[in-house]
Please model this.
Amino acid sequence: MKVIRALLLATLLVPALPAAAADAAPAFGHALTLMQVFVRLAAQTDDPVASLKAMDDVLAGRNIEANQAALGLFGEMTAGMPAEHRAKMASIAGDVLGLARRDLGQGRGSAPAYAVSTETSLQARKDLTAMGLRYYDAKDYLDAVKRDDALAVELFVAGRGVNLASRDADGRSAAEIARANGNSQLAELLARSLPAAR
Model:
């Protein structure tokens, strides 16, 4: 949760830097909207699983209000920048969001806490079915890894219907397949999601 606290602090401080300029009001407004979203999510439930899921939705770009505010803030902050600097800023922001999502886990090397929610698993299974995939089919799971379909793989992890330690015909695990494809982020997700050895 340290990264999330740092994100919240940065959201407050970044617009304060150009506050002396007369045109800083739009950026400050977007930052306030983001803060309002974070505070509202923190205050709306005592259920830690629901809070983590809601926070993950914001960090993953599934909260429309936060998306609009972040896009507006990013646009204001980078308005005068050359395109290559804007691209670097966007890349850094994506990496920071990824770190924050990782920190939502219960600790190093574990799946996110919300992943154990029955509601989340049920929705993931419905989403996989809507995509034409069987949530319980190891072949569909491994095929998603082979084609670098991170969304489907995340749904398989959340759905908890397939053995995440499944291996393909060549004996490779899903994480090994992802690494062979050069997808280290997917490999890390898969390695973190495996149940602890007993």
